[in-house]
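ok so i was messing around last nite and threw this chain in just to see what happens. nothing serious, just curious
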Amino acid sequence: MKKLMLVTLFLTAIACQKKDQTEKPAVVTDEHTFSKPELAVVKHLDLDIKVDFGTQTISGKASWKIDNVSKGNEIIFDENTLNITKVTLGDEEKETKFELGKEVEFHGKPLHITIEPNTTKVNIYYSTTKDAIALQWLNPQQTADKKKPFLFSQGESIWSRTWIPCQDSPGIRFTYNAKVTVPKDLMAVMSASVNPQKKNDIGVYTFKQDKAIPSYLMAIAVGDIEFKSIDNRTGVYAEPSLINKAAWEFAELGKMVHAAEKLYGPYRWGRYDVLVLPPSFPYGGMENPNLTFLTPGVIAGDRSLTSLLAHELGHSWSGNLVTNATWDDIWLNEGFTTYVEHRIGEEIFGKKEAEMQDVLTRKDLDDNIAEYGTTNPDTRLKVSLTNRNPDDGISQIPYVKGYNFLKVLEQAVGREKFDPFIKNYFDAHAFQSITTEDFVKYLKENLIKDDKALADKIKLDDWIYKPGVPSNITAVSSEDFTAIDNIQKNWRTTGIKGLSQKIKSTTEKQHFIDYLPADITAEEMTSIDNEFSFTKNGNFVIKRQWFIQAIRHQYKTAYPAIEQFMIATSRTGSLMSLYKELVKTPEGKVWAKQMFDKAKSGYHATTVQAVEGVLK
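result:
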């Protein structure tokens, strides 16, 4: 890959910062943007676009209000596969020169625009192309209702530049207004402060996001969408056939918001709504401000997977409010959010459930470290993604190792000190993008406070800058899981019948499945399936874990359901675990390639890339 020239990222704070906010370095290196915001930086976007399902393109004008910090004659944007037709300056629309630089793998091209020292507005006329990774265009057959087409975007990590010319870095924040024209029988929604709650007659929708956000949190969806309110500040969007199911599934959404506020202070975004997307959405959820995008796999019919919603809600504090400045720092988003998710879950579902989740999270960490290797630099919290696709950094490591590091801090000082520390951390850095080094500085000044014994106990550098897992990781245990472990040891003697009455919750079933004997027979798999109906289970997580075991132990009764599952979903993480299991045997690899050929047209582009890497 060509080496991307280093750029310096100018980190700006919101105009009205609190007096207790910590001072932070003015610049930090972000290798995944061409922009030079220390010279000229965007502040606000006025977007006017038309969505055309016939050509599968978005076209229009992105008008950027800028701060020409250096009073120079150029501003640089990121773009990838866009068709730039014209650039003008100011309200008078004075045409100006622009030039596209050399393409760099993953990053696209720099868009150099000539400006004047007093320029405050740059208007970019453009259209997207079929190669826009951020956009997924679905025909009616790929939706739940199979009646009308659907569009959604996925900007993280550096893909917003494929649908909007922007300074595409998590360290650059801006507000926006948008006017979106869509077919009259469809509705548009965005990551905006307020979204429409019903279709209008003209197919034109306006949006406003008055909180400064980074480009990866710009999001749009267009489809046959309905809305149902949950309470006065939460609600759900979905296709008509799913709207009532989704509203029932997420009935505790308002309760979750209150639980998070109790722990970490006011929810600062106004409304919190969720949008249930078609199955090709590549993630469990995406924390777009005000409007979380969710996989339909969360609708289990028993509210057993709403912990995923707690994670996306948690991003309203860690990730959206306080954001990683570069993708090398992604653990600041995901590790903190996993911690917040667990705390919300404990507040709502109780300590026993929290203990079980701790054990599952530890297993995820152990499994990921084993897969990567204990000396692999990608198992550090602060990673280096130089000359790499930043999506490579979005593994489970920043989630689960980051969470366990924060648990070490919590245990070292106690919740009576740690909870106020986290709340103050969010307050001090609200609507800012920060680096790992910023966090370390804040931690030392506000929690460690020159306490050498505490510093030695925490092993800060070992957790953040070294691979593997430090020796001071906290112990985890669950009485409920211990009981299941005892059942696991004895069921071959006592029999399978009646176990489904002892192992009831999703978390308990997941643990039971994960620790089935390595030498389990096909006959025993059949008996377990007859007792629990795992192959037919409606719970996404249970299916995934059971199918891994079915592949591993060649339980062929489940094969048709496995194929249906892998074709019907595009959730990258779950698919990757199944494809990785399949390619461990020659026969499995052949089957995996056959399924991929059938399924890839419905997968998101990022999912296709990930699976292709496994099947090589």
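not much to say yet. Residues 33-222 form a domain with the Immunoglobulin-like fold (CATH 2.60.40.1730).
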